[in-house]
Amino acid sequence: MKHLALLLAFPVLAAEPVATVTNTPGLVAFWDFSKRETDGAKRFTAHVPAGATTDYPLDAANYIKDYWGAGREATYADFPQLGRGPFGNAIRIVKETDADFRPFLFVPRSRLHDTPLDIKGSGKSVTVVVWAIRESGNHALAGIWHEGTDLKEKTTTTIAKVERGQRQYALFAGLNKQGSACGHVSENGASSFLNKYALHKCNSADLSPEVPADSPAEVLGKSWQCFAMTFNHQKDELTGWLNGVSGDRWLDNPKNDRLISSAYNAYMQGHYAKLLAKQDGEDESFPKDQYYNPPEAEPVSVKVLRESAEERVELREHRFTKIEVTLRGGKEVARDLVALRLNPWWYPHDLYTPKDAQSGGPFTIGRVIHSSRGVGFTGWIGGVAVFDRALSTAELAKLAEIRNPKP
Predict the structure, then answer these.
(1) Same domain for 68 and 38
(2) Hey, what long-range contacts does 392-398 have (CB within 8 A, 24 or more apart)?
(3) Domain containing 33: what range?
(4) With DSSP H G I counted as helix, E B as strand and the rest as coil, what are the percentages for the chain, rounded to 5?
(5) 15: left (phi over 0), alpha (psi -120 to 50) or beta
(6) 269 lies in the same domain as 384
(7) What is the CATH number of the domain that holds 68?
(8) Based on the domain organization, do 258 and 381 belong to the same domain?
(9) What are the two backbone dihedrals, phi and then psi, of residue 310, each rounded to the nearest 5 degrees?
(10) Of 324, 342, 360, which residue constitutes the final position of a domain?
(11) pLDDT for residue 7
């Protein structure tokens, strides 16, 4: 009888993590890589709310073949399965050595356009959560983030299919801060601040470790990480969370950063535009919709850096910026942006709304379509969940607890 009781209890215990996710308000789709079609191709499908018209079955594809016409087709066989994990199974994103093979799992745009997964437009918030073991890389985990194949790169000289960027929202394994939980959003599907890349992104304070994907079972069982991103449209904040913790992250000297220097310039151009006279360094052709000027009504703190009878220099810390302000006679005569907050990141826009299904990207897992053709993230992915609101700290902490599967 004791053994019978254990057997009867097991399905309940196994279902608990799934129920924790599906019972979280705002769920749009949740792939646990255990739920599949009952017939046909038996593709992975998502847990969806009652009454949903689709459960978003995942296809396999090699985007190099689709866009460059090179390499072989991808199949489910290219995603080894673990047979265990936070929800009972996981897929492996392999460190591919063939430059013409970059497989991912995806929901085509034709099957997601204008469905609840297509989170976009005015007043929309989003949360993406991915349970994963990171072997290597810093690129995409999951989301609607077709980076475009129109960028001028060495790899695009032989491209057969050129498309503009179709970015909406996605979760990455770090990007500029490798191993962090990096949320990425776009208001236009394309670039930011006149840079060729989209730059509205955040980075959690904590970093995920690198764990070989072929590690022993006991090592893998203790290595799951819960990556998450939230975009809260009411606060205009984009936040990265690792294992339920966001943490503060600042970038000092953004002027000298390879990419974020574009955000620095967008800040300074927005500041110059508010002044009556043209300033040194002002570019009057800079597009106004690309200015980047987070709110600075009241400083969090003020520190005097230097002071003389004629001049006072202050370091003013605000919610999203740290600025060095020079005052003469109590009047500001100069300022410089000396630090920019990366977590949370200020994002005052709506999520990109494609005009039709042809100008929108697919939802992809494991990789995204992009012109550089890099290997990206490698490792195990044990679950992907999307919510149509910004989850709370408590809710994200609860989801993070799932990362330690019960024996």
Answers:
(1) yes
(2) 393/244, 393/246, 395/24, 396/127, 396/129, 396/226, 396/228, 396/230, 396/241, 396/244, 397/244, 398/20, 398/24, 398/244
(3) 16-246+345-403
(4) 20, 30, 50
(5) alpha
(6) no
(7) 2.60.120.200
(8) no
(9) -95, -25
(10) 342
(11) 35
**Per-residue model confidence (pLDDT) at position 9:** 36
Single-letter residue type at 286: F
pLDDT of residue 13: 44
d(CA 263, CA 340): 9
Residue type, 315: L
Q: What pLDDT, on the 0 to 100 scale, is given for residue 113? A: 97
282 and 196 co-located in one domain? no
131 within 8 A of 224, measured Cβ to Cβ: yes
- pLDDT, block means (10 residues), the chain with 407 residues: 36 72 98 96 97 97 97 98 97 98 98 98 98 98 96 90 96 97 98 96 98 97 98 98 98 97 98 94 97 96 96 98 96 97 98 94 97 96 98 98 78
- How many CB atoms sit inside 10 A of residue 273's CB? 16
Tokens of 118: 């297509």
Same domain, 73 and 182: yes
37 closest CA partner among 61, 54, 13, 15:
54
For residues 283 and 266, what is the distance between their CA atoms, to the nearest angstrom?
10
Question: Do the domain assignments include residue 6?
Answer: no
Q: Does residue 29 belong to any structural domain of this protein?
A: yes
pTM, 2 dp: 0.95
In a domain, residue 4? The reply is no
pLDDT at 12: 40
Provide the CA 170 distance to its chain's centre, in angstroms.
4
Number of other residues whose CB lies within 10 A of the CB of residue 213: 20
Please report whether residue 201 resides in a domain: yes
3-state class (DSSP) for residue 68: helix
Which of 247, 183, 245 minimizes the C-alpha distance to 397?
245
Whether residue 197 sits in one domain with residue 321: no
Structurally, how many domains does the chain consist of? 2
Last-in-domain residue among 293, 320, 342: 342
227 by DSSP, 3-state: which? strand
What 3-state class would DSSP assign to 213?
coil
Are 180 and 96 members of one domain? yes
Kindly state whether residues 65 and 129 are assigned to the same domain: yes
**What is the per-residue pLDDT for 121?**
98
pLDDT (0 to 100) of residue 404:
80
**Segments in 184-320 forming alpha helices (H):** 217-221, 261-273
The distance in angstroms from the start CA to the end CA of the chain is 21
